Amino acid sequence: MNLIRNTIVLFLMCIYSFSFAQNTDQVKKRGPADEYSRSSMSYLLLDFENEKYASYLKKAINSTMMPSKFDNNNLSKKYIRAPYPRQSTGKSEKIRRSLVAENYAVDIVKYWWEIKDDGSYSTELIQKRGYYNATDEDVNRVDATKVGRAKLGDAGLKLLGNSYVLVLDYENVVTMQDIYDEQDRKNREKAKKDTSYTFVPVKRTHNGSKENDIVFVPIKLFGYRTRIFRRNFY
User: Fold this and answer.
1) Could you tell me if 154 and 200 lie in one domain?
2) What pLDDT band is residue 15 in, cutting at 50, 70 and 90?
């Protein structure tokens, strides 16, 4: 790989809890972690490209907001092709394999190091995140050393392994027009069966929603943590 020379990037993608909480068994055995390390995240949409509103979903994912508690690994890639039919089983493992096959963990490394097409890179983002993660105690400690606060920026490398990928899967996506049409259909059927009932079309501005508004119904969140071990990066 000509952009990364003399580098071994080993990565493991593993399912991580959707709340991003610590593993409860680990907490019971070892107690809470002694240090807080800020995590980063990126979003990916699971793209079922032949579904009716797939194109709408792909546009919407670009405006997804990152929770402030996470740093944003804002990769240009926002969706991956669904590696299975909608009704398939074993979905989590198939998504994991797809992320590995597409070198998504490598893309995260390249994002952190701001690697360009010509092979040049920058440590600015790593330094920035290292400083932001530092506590007052960390600052006081490094101020007493010869290296000084530059060491805080270097600590950003440790945060690279706290990169998470949230894969979003949506099903039963409809527009308000679809909903209104279904309501009218049911009311028409009722009017046919009950002569005392008069069919009246629904008002198509319910709660301020317009006919072309999309209703998103998330059914699955697949969370993955990317553990990346780096050696001799140039």
Assistant:
1) no
2) very low
